[in-house]
Amino acid sequence: MGGAKGGSDFDPVGKSDAEIMRFCQAFMLELWQCIGPDQDIPAGDVGVGGREIGFLYGMYKKLAREYNTGVLTGKGGTWGGSILRPEATGFGALYFTQHLLDKAGKTIEGKKVALSGFGNVAWGAATKATQLGAKVVAISGPDGVCHIPDGITKEMIDYMLVMRASNRNMVEDMATKFPGKAIFTPGKKAWSIPCDIALPCAFQNELSEDDAKELKANGCWCCCEVSNMGCQPGAIHFFQHNGILFAPGKAVNAGGVATSGLEMTQNAEHISWSGEEVDAKLHFIMKSIHEQCVKFGTQPDGTIDYVKGANIAGFMKVATAMLEQGII
Amino acid sequence: MGGAKGGSDFDPVGKSDAEIMRFCQAFMLELWQCIGPDQDIPAGDVGVGGREIGFLYGMYKKLAREYNTGVLTGKGGTWGGSILRPEATGFGALYFTQHLLDKAGKTIEGKKVALSGFGNVAWGAATKATQLGAKVVAISGPDGVCHIPDGITKEMIDYMLVMRASNRNMVEDMATKFPGKAIFTPGKKAWSIPCDIALPCAFQNELSEDDAKELKANGCWCCCEVSNMGCQPGAIHFFQHNGILFAPGKAVNAGGVATSGLEMTQNAEHISWSGEEVDAKLHFIMKSIHEQCVKFGTQPDGTIDYVKGANIAGFMKVATAMLEQGII
Amino acid sequence: MGGAKGGSDFDPVGKSDAEIMRFCQAFMLELWQCIGPDQDIPAGDVGVGGREIGFLYGMYKKLAREYNTGVLTGKGGTWGGSILRPEATGFGALYFTQHLLDKAGKTIEGKKVALSGFGNVAWGAATKATQLGAKVVAISGPDGVCHIPDGITKEMIDYMLVMRASNRNMVEDMATKFPGKAIFTPGKKAWSIPCDIALPCAFQNELSEDDAKELKANGCWCCCEVSNMGCQPGAIHFFQHNGILFAPGKAVNAGGVATSGLEMTQNAEHISWSGEEVDAKLHFIMKSIHEQCVKFGTQPDGTIDYVKGANIAGFMKVATAMLEQGII
Amino acid sequence: MGGAKGGSDFDPVGKSDAEIMRFCQAFMLELWQCIGPDQDIPAGDVGVGGREIGFLYGMYKKLAREYNTGVLTGKGGTWGGSILRPEATGFGALYFTQHLLDKAGKTIEGKKVALSGFGNVAWGAATKATQLGAKVVAISGPDGVCHIPDGITKEMIDYMLVMRASNRNMVEDMATKFPGKAIFTPGKKAWSIPCDIALPCAFQNELSEDDAKELKANGCWCCCEVSNMGCQPGAIHFFQHNGILFAPGKAVNAGGVATSGLEMTQNAEHISWSGEEVDAKLHFIMKSIHEQCVKFGTQPDGTIDYVKGANIAGFMKVATAMLEQGII
Amino acid sequence: MGGAKGGSDFDPVGKSDAEIMRFCQAFMLELWQCIGPDQDIPAGDVGVGGREIGFLYGMYKKLAREYNTGVLTGKGGTWGGSILRPEATGFGALYFTQHLLDKAGKTIEGKKVALSGFGNVAWGAATKATQLGAKVVAISGPDGVCHIPDGITKEMIDYMLVMRASNRNMVEDMATKFPGKAIFTPGKKAWSIPCDIALPCAFQNELSEDDAKELKANGCWCCCEVSNMGCQPGAIHFFQHNGILFAPGKAVNAGGVATSGLEMTQNAEHISWSGEEVDAKLHFIMKSIHEQCVKFGTQPDGTIDYVKGANIAGFMKVATAMLEQGII
Amino acid sequence: MGGAKGGSDFDPVGKSDAEIMRFCQAFMLELWQCIGPDQDIPAGDVGVGGREIGFLYGMYKKLAREYNTGVLTGKGGTWGGSILRPEATGFGALYFTQHLLDKAGKTIEGKKVALSGFGNVAWGAATKATQLGAKVVAISGPDGVCHIPDGITKEMIDYMLVMRASNRNMVEDMATKFPGKAIFTPGKKAWSIPCDIALPCAFQNELSEDDAKELKANGCWCCCEVSNMGCQPGAIHFFQHNGILFAPGKAVNAGGVATSGLEMTQNAEHISWSGEEVDAKLHFIMKSIHEQCVKFGTQPDGTIDYVKGANIAGFMKVATAMLEQGII
Question: What is the dihedral of CA E157, E161, E164, E170, to 10 degrees?
Answer without folding.
Answer: -30
